[in-house]
## 1
Amino acid sequence: MGYIKVDNTKVTKEIADQLKQVCPFNAFEYVDEYLSINASCRVCKLCVKKGPKGVCEFIDDSRPQIDKSKYKGIAVFMEQHNNLCHPVGFELLGKAKEIALKTNEKVYAIVIGSDTQAMVSECLQYGVDDVFVYQDSLYRDFNVERYTNVMESFYKKYQNNVILFGSTPLGRSFAPRVAARLKTGLTADCTMLDITEEGDLLQIRPAFGGNIMAKINTPNNRPQLATIRYKMFNKPAIVKPFGQVHHESVEDIEKHSRIELIESVHKPQAKDISESEIIIALGRGIKKQSDLALIEPLRAQLGADLACTRPLIENGWFDARQQIGLSGRTVKPKLLINIGISGSVHFIEGMKEAETIITINQDPQCKLFNYSHYAICGDLYQVLPKLNELLEQLGVTQHV
Amino acid sequence: MKIITCIKQVPASSNVQVDPITGVLIRDSQNVKMNPFDLFGLETAFQIKSRIENTAIHAVTMGPQSATQVLKEALYMGADDATLLTDRKFAGADVLATSYTISQLVKHMKDYDLVICGKQTTDGDTAQVGPEMAEFLGIPHVPYVKELIEVTSKYIIVRSAYDQYDEIVKVELPCLLTVEKDANTPRLPSYRRQLLFDNYKINYVTFKDLEDQNENHYGLNGSPTQVDEIFSPDKSMHSTRFEGDPQTLSNQLVEILKDKRFL
């Protein structure tokens, strides 16, 4: 905590320019030979570390440190619909168990719903230490006001260290509400998590549209909250349940809400590519819509699902739910074949977890090659017809 | 009805890289623009104004002096007035401190019925500021609004887009909405309005105007999270490269797929 102080006796035009270069946020203003810092400053201290020596100084006016040893336990909010857990919750339990080994903390699942029994036993199967259950008929559907009250009540009682949420649309609306209620930090859309022995959660997330990664921590506040992308981590192994179930009283939790759910309308279910095992992803290398037929033999043979990059969505060739990338889906298939994709950072962030990645592209410098296990350097319009001949010879159509 | 729309100035390009040696951010431009998501938020406000008589739309932003540019754009599009929230004391704010500071501004503006934000910004990308503000204001929020179904002076009914489903909710006013991308077609700034606002003076609000005068709630001091380091995404992996004529390449591809038991 603190701010940056500028020693203007040392500032010249050159130094001012140098500092302007260093600052990622355009926070320096040099007017009438006076260098000042405006409200854009994020106190990233780059000017102190990378700028000319002795010009900028970080002034620390810290608040007293909290006693971190008092806050124990990594909790996961189990998102549910119709009393069925969203799989992201189990993935987070897996990650929580992994990092909890470092700090010797327990892993908690927080289950809120109207009929929680099945969800509770599922959590136990994945080997959580404690399941905290908040059951009421009013908790059947997610309601941000009621659920926030529940989380507040949980934290007041258990004073735990970390609470994790899935970075689903629901989680992204709910977690900030909880963070503001508990007046603590929240890091959105983490792609990696770790923890220090002291219990400080290290949260890594893409910033500037994924062009850089930022490592964020919450040094002096508890609980530490983070939302984590779906499909980033593996579900834990199924074990013989050993955890304890705590049925919490909900009587004293405020249930009034100013939000009334009138209807939840399910969109026609195009299969979600984030669940797919085998994906063929297509990009701008495909020149016209009719060329998609070239892909069909391979797709049929593999039983693959089709996905694409943003330009093909903009062309109207695909549904937006088939887009891979930061603004689309994160996928984690066993096999991903990229055809005609050069590989923007956004796309790469969405697919880099695939187990086997094959990329076909005619550009030898194609960026995506660096992220592929197999780089096939060739023109898709020449390779695919040959491939289709081969597939025809193979003849065996795999029945799924 | 009194509507407060929150907008933000963001870098025009998110194309930044980290210099691997110095660790300094390299940007390819210093240009800025209005956060594209906010355009849909503003348009939502304009559409409510066309439905409800006596509606005033107040555009607000937090940022340095140069952020007045996006406020002007909002005025030229159709906002009735514009306020810049700026103070050195707000510097270094993370999501919590930012949300708190803007919620203090909204409180300062009093008697509002609706607060409208874009779903997220293109630079922060968190989509958290809206919901956190609502919590600080003690009002309900509805995220990802893509359609206004009914607007009255007591409540509104909207449709929200979640990944797999839509929700139609009725919510009491005052409340906060975050508006989904492509919820509507934002209008362009008009030249006539630009002339109209030629002599307009943007309102300034600074720390001393806010109700909460505890400096520890703002800026870096009020921010629980801090950035430890920034780095380029580095994902080097073992990669095998195949070159040659199309026939060889397709043979190899089939071999790989067989080897991995996909064929």
## 2
Amino acid sequence: MLSDRALRFGLKPVAFIVSLGPFFWLVWAAVTGNLSANPLSDLTNETGIWALRFLCISLAVTPLRRLSGWNGAIKFRRMTGLFAFFYASLHFLTYVIADRFAGLDFPNGIVSWTTVVNLGKAVWDDVYKRPFITIGFTALMSMVPLALTSTARMIRRLGGKRWNRLHKIVYGTAVLGVIHYLWLVKADTRRPLTYGAVVAVLLGLRVVWSRQKARRLVPAAVPARG
Amino acid sequence: MLIKKPADIPSSEITDKKAYLDRRQFLQAASGTAAVAAAGLLGAEELLYAATPAPHGRKLDGIRKSPLSTDEKPNKWEEITTYNNYYEFGIDKDSPSQTAHSLKPAPWTVSVDGECAKKGPMNFEDVIKGETLEDRIYRHRCVERWSMVIPWVGFPLANFIKRCEPTSKAKFVEFTTLSDPKQMPGLRNPVLNWPYVEGLRMDEAMHPLTIFVVGLYGEVIPNQDGAPLRLAVPWKYGFKHIKSIVKVKFVEKQPLNTWQESAANEYGFYANVNPAVDHPRWSQAQERRIGEFFMRKTLLFNGYGDQVASLYNGMDLRRNF
């Protein structure tokens, strides 16, 4: 297995750069005109997909660690989780700019307090009115406390147990992310359902493991079954 | 009207076949490599927009201008031929531009059926026989909130319908798209209930704005845009503009169009562009004109209200969406 040093100074920086790959690719493609005829829609869609992918990857860390026995995997959990938040934030930002801001009227000019107020209202109205936006926004908001408590200091402050309990929120985030995607597509549900299946397996493993653990902890309470 | 034989095209108009093939090979290789990389990484979707604009093809001759055209600036050929919703060739916007080369638009037969006197198969050449082609520059509004201005070439559907001699029982016209898995790779996926079907009420079909389209930008229409024969009904959402039509049937009852069949609460039969009637999941009040940043306000009947609003007098547009 890899040494701690190799992990810290080798694999982790590499993973970091690779994780930024989609971001740089999107920027490059947008600047050079390599997106479709509707680049704003592409940017919104792609950042959303990458948020979901990183959510899946971060949820896969623990199962990977358990199934492979490679404990070093844990070193990537925070990074991949934060990248999920990074892409989800970009996703929200492109939506706010390309969908909400671009649809505003500017009675007092673009640079004005009215614009700020109207933009806030346009976002809030959409979040309130459109279920798939509501779900997506909720998913993003659910990641905020996780990102804020992702530092070693916050883990110490909260204590491992409480921190762990708090971070179970991410299970809900992933489910909301899949629903958000599912409610967005027109007819072809294969892609969102694929992500749904991935999330289901990753969460399902946890259910199975926690049951096994419960059984091991209180063997007397569980009658043996034939 | 005349479609010049290929030999009549000035050679300067034609992309050198080798260059064209090389280009395609290069793109296939490039996108193939990217796809393998992507599949290796995450196992599913494409990462690159490997859209290939349609090669410029045969020029159409004797096209007349039309007073029904808008004077708005048309979208680019590249935009119109790489950003397509044509699920028979894949669900991504750039899929048809990559896969529609497998469609064989000639020879082409349209079968005429139902409540009319002149039934039977009809060669494409007979469909356009005697028609004067017109440039019809129309606004095109997709139900997905994007829009384009497209310089179609076509002729009034009414002319064709008259030639079919519909009976008094013909209240609607039903159109069917080709459904041949050999030519259309997207048919493998049961995303919609193939073949794609659309329909119009007789008065809508007879309206002077409604046209059979055979060309784009003065050229024969590219495969990804619905070659060789498609519909344009500019006051309705894009999905009513059925492509690659192989069947026209005159019927008494309102046809069940494919998208309505797929999700009746979201897509209706009429599908008239209407900023006041939202899609259940998104607002239809605004649209993004492809190539622009700021959204435009969507116009009732896509701005063709003066011509078509009377078709729907006394009709509840909210219920008949």
